[in-house]
Amino acid sequence: MEFLIKLITFLLFLMPTISSSQYLGNNILTNRKIFPKQETLTSYAVVFDAGSTGSRVHVYHFDQNLDLLHIGNDVEFYNKTTPGLSAYADNPKEAAESLIPLLEQAERVVPVNLQPKTPVKLGATAGLRLLDGNSSELILEAVIVSSLLKKRSTFNVQSDAVGIIDGTQEGSYLWVTINYVLGNLGKDFSETVAVADLGGGSVQMVYAVSREQAKKAPQVPQGEDPYIKKIVLKGKKYYLYVHSYLRFGKEASRAEILKVTNGSPNPCILAGYHGTYTYSGEEYKAFSPASGSNFDECKEIILKALKVNDPCPYGKCSFGGIWNGGGGSGQKTLYVTSSFYYVPTGVNIADPNKPNSKIRIEDLKTGAEQVCKTKYKDAKATYPLIYEDSLPYACLDLIYQYTLFVDGFGLDPLQEITVANQIEYQDALVDAAWPLGNAIEAISSLPKFDPFMYYFI
């Protein structure tokens, strides 16, 4: 026995020592808690984005540090169906049933044993917000009863799981998404990036400001969203300037621009097109003058639609008398998403083969001047990436974006912006969209996560 003890002692002496810092590795630098790698410490979240042009499902997989884990070869599962819920305004049951294929796909992604602990969210955006009467409420009630709660879902569905996301929520979640993926959360506000999102029905501008600047935010009438939203992320408090401009998304803005000419020829429409544009149940005559589309004349009409000359009681306004947040270092780097990506890539101003790329705002003007010379009959052959129903408005959409940035948001035409559909994260790509921010909020509310890591106040 004594010989055996001596032998074991000798062998232990020969083994290489491992310091605690070597064992903890990078965790000692990141101040993260160390957990054994067990499946029970990972969590999933499911988010439905019920937008104006279609419904999408996103599934995310997080570790105990709220870092994204792979789902197959990607770090999110994504799928889409069209049309959006707002297309079923007269048939709420059919609206709910349109989501069932997406729900079934999500259930195939999340392990069965984790589904009861997996939070699910459905956020309806501008398209549903614009429906008349109680159509939106009836659709959401049908979604809850028919497809998420009563019959089909095995997920963890809380009472607030389904609802209409207002523009400030949508913008705030997107800001969290982009800055999370870029690794900016927890840093000073000046090291974060601003985001602008052009959806179908609304456009959002969001960026972080200093505490001193946040105090200057004007009071808004009762019932309206405040200009500043406070968020604590990774122990850091941020003051977000966020505003959503309803009726100024890509599809909605076309209607506003056509309203200005009120049935007369519109210089924003490609030469040779004569038709009608339908938005939110209303029809608008859309046809060009005999001379075709014209950049300067179109821009004048867009300026009227944006109401850039409305009185500004706050000193610094964007358009329509809206406070612009004051600008600053939190806005110096700007990521723009949704139709801010699809429109310039559709005419090769930005590279359509890249998930994101940098352009200057003035590139939109240069591209518009070229596109506006195109006749409608030649547009499909010239710009094959543009959907057929968007071809008449190819000139309009570009001039609108340029005017919105320069005359609406007051940005320098020479400013470089990143047009993004997806952003690199580790060895994969993440959609540049609000659902990840919503998923982070849902996941961080689970008991096993630090509630102050991501917490909206």
UniProtKB/TrEMBL annotation:
Where ATP binds, per the record, is at 200-204
UniProt keyword Signal present: yes
Q: Name one GO biological process term.
A: nucleoside diphosphate catabolic process
The leader peptide range reads 1-20
Molecular function GO terms recorded? ATP binding; nucleoside diphosphate phosphatase activity
What is the active site of this protein? 170
Pfam families assigned to the protein according to its UniProt record, in alphabetical order:
GDA1_CD39
- Family of this protein: Belongs to the GDA1/CD39 NTPase family.
Name used for this protein in its record = Nod factor-binding lectin-nucleotide phosphohydrolase
| Gene name per UniProt | 11436283
